[in-house]
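Sample 3 of the quickstart, ligand pyridoxal-5'-phosphate:
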Amino acid sequence: MSETFFGPDFQALQGQDPEIAAILISELDRQRENLQLIASENFTSPAVLAALGSTLSNKYAEGYPGKRYYGGCEEVDKAEVIGIARAKELFGAEHANLQPHSGASANVAIYQAFTKPGDTVLAMSLPHGGHLTHGSKVNFSGKWFNVESYGVRQDNELIDYDELRDIALRVKPKMICSGATAYPSLIDFKTVRSICDEVGAIMWVDAAHFIGLVAGKAIPSPVEYADVVSFTTHKVLRGPRGGMILSKAAHASAIDKAIFPGMQGGPIMSAVAAKAIALKECATAQYQAYAKEVIVNAKALAKSLEDEGMRAVSGGTETHLALIDIRSTGVNGKVADERCGRAGISLNKNAIPYDPESPAVTSGIRVGTPAVTTQGMGSEQMPVIASLIARAIKDGEDEAKIAQIRKEVNALTAKFPVYPA
Ligand code: PLP
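Result:
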């Protein structure tokens, strides 16, 4: 069955390179059979996969449509022009750049467009949910910039906007970043804009996680408030692996120059075309219904995990992901992640705010519903998934019990086939 998904070229690959062909098949089987609860993953459409596997991959196209440094770009130019128009239309943005190879690459370009090494930037603290590119000491951002951090309040685990403003007034950042990797609540972009205006900072929103919910009109958009919005295209948005930047028209030239020639060479034109396809998919009524259902499912999953005796950080979720404090189980995040993995449940360990454990161990797990919702699972399945997670965490030392949970995971996913042949 798996071979047929890949189409006629696959037989040639099997003959030429059986080792890699076997990996393509077993990864497809893993995605089909296991429960995919990693909040940043999804099942992209066969149309997006077709563009990624196309001959557009062969084309060098340094520059922008109509201003390339290579000949023969007339066909790929059309794809990029269509993609830019779709992005501007979908998000109501004045400018769009589809070339960033990834979310991290988009963020490198943003630092480059608006700051100089040594400048002060204010971003969400990593232990409270920020991303590596928001100032980690092992990342270019923390090495080359003075990144100051704000966090969440201890009592309600929500962003402390008073603290954010106080820090901004004190450190006078060139740029303030909002957006995170593990923050289950909505962000008050209007308040962030007013703080940016008060201190004269660029407002940068790293919307990597939630942009798909914005595209589906399921949550408010940061685009009208922000100077610049960066994001990944492969999470809830359900496009190819890659990045994108939206900005006000005044920043268009700085952004484009920061991507090329600032920090990338040729764009990956197969990915640019795939981004255009995903943007068209996002404009449909089906996708809007999907984005809303992702949130309904995430709320139901968080509630069901609470019913299993765990605690949802900040009391639940308003997005596609929930952060779960699992200290009540007596098991840490690292062990829970490993036990769920053996039971066929993919999720990740995650620090909770004010976590007493180290980042390598953690007291929590992060779960997300973009992939299971694409599969067609709904609120009926969320308590079942929560119970499977709770049993895997509790019974993880018992191989027979883990094997039984794995069987139940496989039976559940078989009812919601991914990439049916
Ligand atoms: N920004 C945020 C908030 C993210 O969550 C991520 C990835 O998870 C990134 C940036 C980086 O994206 P990529 O892995 O595509 O470089």
